[in-house]
Amino acid sequence: MANFLQNIFLRLQASSGRVVLREVRGDQFVSVTAGELLALVEAARRFFRAQQIPPGERCGLIAANSIHWIAVDLALMAEGIVVVPLYHRQTAGELAGMLKDCQPRLVLTGDDETSEALGAAWPQIPAPVRLGGIFSNAAPQSGASSPREASDDHLLTIIYTSGTSGEPKGVCLNAGNLNHMTGCTTERLNQLMGATTAADQIFLYAPMNFAASWMLMLSALLRESVLTLSSDLNKLADEICRSAPHYFLNVPTLLERVKRAVEDNLAKQAAPIQSLYKKTREAWQRQNAGRTKLFDGFTIALGRKLIFSKIKARFGPNIRALICGSAPLAPETQQWFLMLGIPVLQAYGLTETTALCTLDDPRLPIEPGYVGRAVSGIEMQLAENDEIIVRGPNIFSGYWNRPAETTQVLRDGWLHTGDQGEVNASGNWRIIGRIKNLLVLNTGHKFAPEPIEDKLAQLLPAAQQIVLVGNGRSYVTMLVTGLVTGKLESAAVQAAIDQVNRDLPHYRQIRNFHILPEPFAPDSGLVTANGKLKRDAIAKHYDAEVNSMYARKATA
């Protein structure tokens, strides 16, 4: 039986003249057909053979999404070389740390600046190769050789993810993981698209070093699809509309930003438009609650025709659904998109679960606040403290060179996720919170706060406790207490933040802070007897102060 990679090659070979990939370049698309993509893959394979890299060795891949990125990814897997995709916006020091951990034989970068920064951070790095250079001198060649045979336990990729210690760990995913999960994703996408014979139009802006984005790319190549890659996040709205997708992958921060921008714009419209929007929302909420009043149906129909249709048009004429994962989405935001006539299918998963555990079934009613049912072949249960544990062919084989940490999360065949959840009578799962201390931003970025807090504590000797805040938010803020009340100066706190931020990637940088009048004491319920922070209790107790920090930043 062919594996997922062989099936991708077979599908590309069977439709060589069909456009499969596009990059948005201003008002134009740069496109490649299936045959052209195979030729790029073959050119990359010839390059890797010339480097004499044996199967099983690692190759770092650090670049923005592009057609060349996909060609190289497919070529590495076809040659049996383990792909190590890294986020190109990480700091050079962090990238160097992950590369040192996996010891690649080759490092591919998207630009000279990244190569130079990596060389400075790790002088012993294998000489980085520009991604585009692989193809610049390659002679055109039609056709493509078949991928190497790969058993289910063959290691395909190492995707780095942060742990509670703050030190990234390499998640090892094998061919069996991908064989199962690509089957699950294509099944769900088939359900979404139904009996249509038209090719899926898909848009992708999230970096493909994230497991969910990578899975969407592979699933697109396994189906009759045209995958369009974003090239400028500053022009995302225009790119989405121009790409006219049927669906695309999102993080909550984008959907919440869209909702906020629309409501801000509506607040500037004429009074009749504002009134109609308000009445339509109220009618929609009543309808959802089963308390429909006379004329509510007419009001909703009028609002959709005069207001919502224009909002929906910004996603292009084909939009069927949005897929959202990587962090919790506010139920109110999911309801708002349903009101527009755009269902948001929520997903839940970890890199360790090959991106997915659950995904809303597009054929069933959506329950806002829930992340859908377990996908085919995957078992999910609740363990101690309502921790979600998962078992199935999607579970990773372990962390790269970290047997002790692997044993901590893989026990008796079950992956302990560190997430707290619940499941309803319909089998839909809801994520309540995190048992671990990882901060999970609504951009999808995850990281441990302790290393940053420790650095700040060294720079702020007058501080007693420092707590980073950001779960479900789009950026990080900080609560801080002083050893002596009133002795902690705002200027000193800001100076320490500025110094730490210089060495952090954008999503970990602290954007605001609040000095609390009193330190946390054990009898307050905010710290344990030995002084460990009770983060959830702190966030709840200082909810007003936290909301104030985000309100101040938003209006600054």
Q: How is the topology of this model organized?
A:
Elements: H1 4-14, E1 19-25, E2 28-33, H2 34-50, E3 58-62, H3 67-78, E4 82-86, H4 92-102, E5 106-109, H5 112-121, E6 129-130, H6 133-136, E7 155-161, E8 169-174, H7 175-193, E9 200-204, H8 211-222, E10 225-229, H9 236-243, E11 247-250, H10 252-266, H11 271-288, H12 296-312, E12 322-324, H13 331-340, E13 344-348, E14 358-359, E15 373-374, E16 379-382, E17 387-391, E18 398-399, H14 403-409, E19 410-411, E20 414-423, E21 429-434, E22 439-440, E23 446-447, H15 450-459, E24 463-469, E25 476-482, H16 490-501, E26 510-515, H17 535-541, H18 543-555
Parallel strand pairs: 1-10, 3-4, 3-5, 5-6, 9-10, 9-11, 11-12, 12-13, 25-26
Antiparallel strand pairs: 1-2, 7-8, 8-18, 13-14, 14-15, 16-17, 17-20, 19-20, 20-21, 22-23, 24-25
